[in-house]
Amino acid sequence: MKVVGLMSGTSGDGVDAALVEIRGRGRALRLRLLAHTALPYPPTFQRRIVAAGLNGSVSEICHLNAALGEVFARAVLKVIRMARVRHTAVELIGSHGQTVHHLPQGLVEPGLGRIRSTLQIAEPAIIAERTGITTVANFRSRDVAAGGEGAPLAPYAHYLLFSHPSRARLIVNLGGISNVTFVPRRGALKAVRAFDTGPANMLLDGIMQRTSHGRTRMDRGGRLALRGKVRPALLRRMMQHPFLRRRPPKSTGREDFGGTFLDRLLREAGRAGVSRDDLLATAVQFTADTVSGARRWLPGPVAEVFIAGGGVRNLAVMKAMQRMFAPVPVRPLDDLGWSSQALEAVAFAVFAYQTIHGECANVPSVTGARHPVILGQIVPGRPRHVLRLDK
């Protein structure tokens, strides 16, 4: 079955689309990446998405839900064209959507108790209508309903793709938020451990956008951070964030490390006379320290570390990670033959495939859910393209 996976992370800077060929059932899957593309959001659109996550009006979120559905549908059509496969050969889409708010610890509602919630937008009905292809979306909510954090979900795919018979591996995704997956050697799925560790690109990009007054979106390649020096006093204060002391299962987002955190960091840096480059270098070290410090919650040592996500392209981050994990080798996931940029989109293709085959794809040992669940909600494609599993 050919499946398109769609992913837009916490950075809110665009959507990744991966076309994957999947064979097999259950955990005995075989995957082949056919094509991958990224569709960046215009800067003003990105800013609206970020703002909507913390203080967006109902009308704005309603509009963005539909607008993102259109963008995601375009990404599907683009990756199908890139792969040069027939449109009718693609039978399924798995869409993560765009997270606008994530409250895994929950809020107390009188008469109902503590209510956990998470919200991803990018209307799947629009994706299915524009492409004609059956679409599975809203994956996180079922895990949350079962008492889990709804994140991270990708470790299920990490386990399927990267288990090794003799070496325990750590898969690190450096997106807007950084997260780690411990894949044990010869281990069972229930032995997998994974959790968010803190901010990554979201913080670095935020510093660049604020200090350039919106003219620059990122420190491309980590060039400016490499010129700066880590400020130990500022780093120590950053490391006091309460999320870093929480034991897994745990997940985070802009609610912890968004605008409020960035405002406070910029004020402290300003009072201490910290330059932009030094602030970037300190934020890079903060990302590396939080990922490295996560080892205290792993069940054993790791033999190798593989990095995925946009952070792979930041040389300053990669060098800091290599320093923190030495002598354990730290390499980009591409060294295993998988695109580090496509990995999370591939994961949501896998989730969609498992959903329509009735397979559970959350990992309760990771999310804290009470039991395994089938993830996602299914929106049928056009009548001539409705998925038939009996053929």
Compact description:
With 391 residues, the chain is an alpha/beta fold. The chain has helices spanning 43-55, 58-83, 124-131, 140-145, 155-162, 201-211, 223-227, 232-238, 254-257, 259-271, 276-293, 315-325, 343-356, 364-367, and strands spanning 2-8, 14-23, 30-40, 90-109, 113-121, 135-137, 169-174, 177-183, 193-199, 304-308, 330-332, 377-379. The protein is built from 14 helices and 12 strands.
Description:
By secondary structure, the chain is α/β, with parallel strands linked by helices. It is 38% helix and 23% strand. It contains 14 helices and 12 strands. It has helices at 43-55, 58-83, 124-131, 140-145, 155-162, 201-211, 223-227, 232-238, 254-257, 259-271, 276-293, 315-325, 343-356, 364-367, and strands at 2-8, 14-23, 30-40, 90-109, 113-121, 135-137, 169-174, 177-183, 193-199, 304-308, 330-332, 377-379. The strands form 2 sheets. Strands 1, 2, 3, 4, 5, 6 and 12 form a 7-stranded mixed sheet that branches. Strands 9-8-7-10-11 form a 5-stranded mixed sheet, sandwiched between helices. Strand 10 (304-308), helix 12 and strand 11 (330-332) form a beta-alpha-beta unit. Helix 8 crosses helix 11. The chain is globular and about 65 Å long.
